[in-house]
Specification:
265 residues, alpha+beta, Rossmann fold, OB fold (Dihydrolipoamide Acetyltransferase, E2P), five-stranded antiparallel beta sheet, 30% helix, 32% strand, elongated
Length: 265
């Protein structure tokens, strides 16, 4: 079948008349940006275009809920990113409640109004993506979504002392004693150690293990004097001046973080 016939297939099964089928198929093909491809067959369409036809076919019947199960998994990275944005645009325009299943965390954070994180069939957290990422309610969510450092800390009075900085702890954290603070790479900053100058006393001393340029950002792995390996996300230009073995200082921003009991306590 052609793209138009594919989109109209569900309508035909529901007994919708020919003229109405063509009208609604044309509308949703326009919505997904494929009106000019309506007479083409599947083998004449790219993978991304085929997925757009599938989405249009689902939307044509005006479902009360749209179920998308790994809809972008078979596409290359660039097409997946483009179609992800298109699905979000279409979903906002149409307003259909949509359940989007994915193992791509960036995809989940980008398209969702609410993200649910599951572990062994149990829903660990259901919240807006910003909250799931920045205010995780369980250690599993904190470590499953994005990269996380476990940093030795001491908790008391609703705060944690970590790397020379006092940081508020999130609800659900351990309430006192030796702990590990779960910190995102972007919560850490790395600067060259000023030696005996003004930098001493700010943060903790460390040594660069690796420094990686990732395009828009850089990632630096350091080892502190007490043997902790930490990963910090920095501006891409900051990576150029860092080499393995360089002395640096690591500081922590004071945004709330989740604290868990230290291992062995």
């Amino acid at each position: 079948m052609s793209a138009r016939d594919n989109v109209a297939f569900g309508l035909r099964l529901r007994g919708v008349g020919g003229a109405e089928r063509r009208r609604r198929a044309g509308e949703v093909l326009e919505l997904v940006g494929l009106s000019s491809q309506s007479d083409r067959y599947a083998h004449q369409l790219s993978g991304g275009q085929q997925q757009r036809v599938a989405l249009a076919r689902a939307l044509a019947v005006q479902p009360s809920v749209l179920l998308l199960d790994e809809p972008l998994s078979a596409l290359d990275a660039k097409v997946r990113s483009q179609l992800r944005e298109e699905i979000r645009r279409i979903q906002l325009e149409v307003g259909t409640t949509t359940l989007f299943v994915t193992h791509d965390q960036e995809e989940a954070l980008a398209v969702a109004d609410r993200v649910g994180v599951m572990k062994a069939g149990r829903l660990e957290q259901l919240a807006p993506p910003e909250e799931v990422y920045s205010r995780p309610t369980t250690p599993f969510v904190a470590e499953f979504v994005g990269l996380t450092n476990r940093v030795a800390a001491t908790v008391h009075d609703g705060h944690a002392d970590v790397l020379g900085t006092r940081v508020p702890v999130l609800p659900g954290s351990t309430t006192g004693g030796a702990a590990e603070l779960l910190l995102r790479p972007e919560a850490l900053s790395v600067v060259a150690d000023a030696g005996a100058g003004a930098g001493v006393g700010a943060g903790a001393g460390a040594t660069v293990v690796t420094a990686s340029f990732l395009g828009a950002v850089g990632r630096v792995r350091v080892r502190t004097a007490d043997g902790q390996d930490l990963v910090a996300q920095v501006a891409s230009h900051a990576v150029e001046g860092l080499r393995p073995g360089d002395a640096v200082r690591v500081t922590v921003r004071t945004a709330p973080a989740l604290a868990v009991p230290a291992e062995g306590t």
